């Protein structure tokens, strides 16, 4: 059984980036474009359902149309040393005419007709925090001694002068 290539164009195509701080909802946009002459149904899923809200999480894209999907990361306590394995999958299927029941359509779809793309999730810190800790994507590996920092700076000496 050969895997069917994704019929949609995804922007971004490999990873969704979320920029901290993560004390409030952080949103990342995913653009889905249909370059074909057929209607395409889509469904966006994640490996961490409680952590994200996806709007819309499913729909139909008309020929040569596009849809912007908002992926909202819910507030959480960020740790740069915790590995992030969250992923998203965009499933798509060419749609016929008429009304569509997405639950039935994707459950009963022929596996040869189902298309899919995976996106990994990356958390980015603001610039002032980024110098202190690595990004916690799946490829990052924490320092064995995070409390030790090498510094090439000499100690800062301040002098105060009082003028009377």
TrEMBL record:
Transmembrane helix in keyword set: yes
SUPFAM superfamilies (alphabetical): PapD-like
Region (Disordered): 132-164
Main location: membrane
PROSITE patterns from the UniProt entry: MSP (PS50202)
TM spans (from-to): none
GO cellular component: endoplasmic reticulum membrane; plasma membrane
InterPro entries named in the record: Ig-like_fold (IPR013783), MSP_dom (IPR000535), PapD-like_sf (IPR008962), VAP (IPR016763)
Keywords of the record: Membrane, Transmembrane, Transmembrane helix
Domain MSP: start-end pairs: 7-124
Subcellular location: Membrane
Residue ranges, compositional bias (Basic residues): 146-164
Membrane topology recorded in Swiss-Prot or TrEMBL: Single-pass type IV membrane protein
GO molecular function (one): FFAT motif binding
One Pfam family, short name: Motile_Sperm
Signal peptide (UniProt feature, chain positions): none
Keyword Transmembrane helix on entry: yes
Gene Ontology biological process terms, A to Z: endoplasmic reticulum membrane organization; endoplasmic reticulum-plasma membrane tethering
Family, similarity comment: Belongs to the VAMP-associated protein (VAP) (TC 9.B.17) family.
Descriptive protein name: MSP domain-containing protein
Organism (species): Petrolisthes cinctipes (Flat porcelain crab)
